[in-house]
Amino acid sequence: MPNHKQRRDKLRRLVREAEAEAILVTSYDNVTYLTGFTGDSSYLLLTCDGQIVLSDRRYTTQLETECPNIDLEIRGPEMTMLDSVAKVVRKAKLGSLAIEASNVTLEFSQKLAEKLPKVNLVTTSGLVEQLREIKDKDELAEIREAITIAERAFAVVKAGLRPEQTEKQVADELERQVRLFGGECTAFWPIVGVGPNGALPHYRPGGVKIGESFMVLVDWGAKAKLYLSDLTRIIVTGKAPAKLERVYNVVLKAQKKAIGAIRPGAIMEDVDAAARKVITDAGFGKQFGHSLGHGFGLQIHEQPRLAVNQKRTLEPGMVVTVEPGIYLPGTFGVRIEDDILVTKDGHEVLSHVPKEYADCVIA
Ligand code: ZN
Ligand code: ZN
Predict the structure, then answer these.
(1) What fold is seen in the domain 4-132?
(2) What pTM value is reported for the model?
(3) Burial of 274 (0-12, 13-18, 19+ CB in 10 A)
(4) CA spacing 20 to 30 A to 208: which of 118, 122, 137, 155?
(5) Which ligand is nearest to the CA of 231?
(6) CATH 3.40.350.10 spans which residues of the chain?
(7) Of the ligands numbered here, which is closest to the C-alpha atom of 322?
(8) CA 75 – ligand 1 centroid, Å
(9) 196 Cα to the center of ligand 2, angstroms
(10) Which ligand has the minimum distance to the alpha carbon of residue 232?
């Protein structure tokens, strides 16, 4: 059972440091993280000694089941969320209230200020996200599960790949296999890019057939119950130019180099630089146009980021992707993405899809 109480207590410390008496958590993922409630449309008011979820009648039963130890403020259809928030804040007699700047609209915060003229609204940014960077053992167990599901789904799709399948059909098949292996769904709509489409990092799968080129790039993940995974591999499906293997091995070398640099205390931008140097030295610096990796968990892109200008250090419990790429517009693209846990004394590669060039070739 995830320790939601411990998470809330950690947040209380951060709220105190931000000089607020309480925080209104409006990000649904953050509410889930702090309470275990998996629905949406609900906020959490966390005070120094209390926790109240504000929701509406659709969710009463689910809330009572998923977070029985939390007070509820259930509003009827005659009341807005804003009024409900104002009501509980007044009742708690708060002099100050932190709000999540990156999750409320300007309109909401202005209206809240009008409704609560005596309450000092403190703008905070990323307090819960900061806690979510470090995964606890329950989160790690589910991330491992999300990776296993994604890997099994990919193995089936790869083994059954046919020249007449379109990119979209491959993406649909990944979705189906993820569900068959016990996942909720894919972590995001998979990227399946045949040939030159693999050079578009955020391509949406369309009607191009596998047989129309010599390779396909697949970027996919699974959602276990709540937590996600994120992987990328290429599959060589036909007679490829020699350049593909050359480029692939540069990306693989860059990825291994960066993974090798992951340990507690390593500076995030240095890990990015480790991969970037290998690619730049090989003459493809300009063709690696994105950052190296990102945290993930409840969302597919979370803090931290392995990127230029990220001066913070890695800490045990962080989980990041490492995904260097080389994209040759109009020709092909190669990206290799794995999921890495920062451990006490180094790192653990959580994903295990074989990735030597020969492993990618099915032609
Ligand atoms: Zn990805
Ligand atoms: Zn990614």
Answers:
(1) Creatine Amidinohydrolase; Chain A, domain 1 (3.40.350)
(2) 0.95
(3) buried
(4) 155
(5) 1
(6) 4-132
(7) 2
(8) 39
(9) 20
(10) 1
| Ligand showing the shortest atom-to-Cα distance for residue 321 | 2
Indicate where the chain has its CATH 3.90.230.10 domain(s): 137-360
DSSP label of 221: -
Ligand nearest to the CA of 150: 1
| CA separation for the pair 107, 33 (Å, rounded) | 26
Residues 334 and 357: beta-carbon distance below 8 Å: no
Helix (H) or strand (E) holding 141: helix 137-159
Q: How far apart are CA 74 and CA 68, in angstroms?
A: 14
- Residue 204 CA to ligand 2 center (angstroms) comes to 15
Q: What is the pLDDT along the chain (363 residues), one digit of tens a residue?
A: 779 999 999 999 999 999 999 999 999 999 999 999 999 999 999 999 999 999 999 999 999 999 999 999 999 999 999 999 999 999 999 999 999 999 999 999 999 999 999 999 999 999 999 999 999 999 999 999 999 999 999 999 999 999 999 999 999 999 999 999 999 999 999 999 999 999 998 899 999 999 999 999 999 999 999 999 999 999 999 999 999 999 999 999 999 999 999 999 999 999 999 999 999 999 999 999 999 999 999 999 999 999 999 999 999 999 999 999 999 999 999 999 999 999 999 999 999 999 999 999 997
In this structure, which CATH number among 1.10.443.10, 3.90.230.10, 3.40.50.720, 3.40.50.150 belongs to the domain 137-360?
3.90.230.10
Among all ligands shown, which has an atom nearest to the Cα of 188?
Answer: 1
Closest CA to 190 of 199, 212, 306, 176: 176
Ligand 1 centroid distance, CA of 198 (Å): 13
For ligand 1, the distance from its centroid to the CA atom of residue 310, given in whole angstroms, is 20
272 CA distance to ligand 1 centroid (A)?
16
φ/ψ (deg, to 5) at 276: -65, -35
Separation between Cα atoms, residue 233 and residue 335, nearest integer Å? 7
Ligand nearest to the CA of 296: 2
Tell me which residue has tokens 């047989």: 211
Whole-number Å distance, alpha carbon 201 to ligand 2 midpoint, is: 10
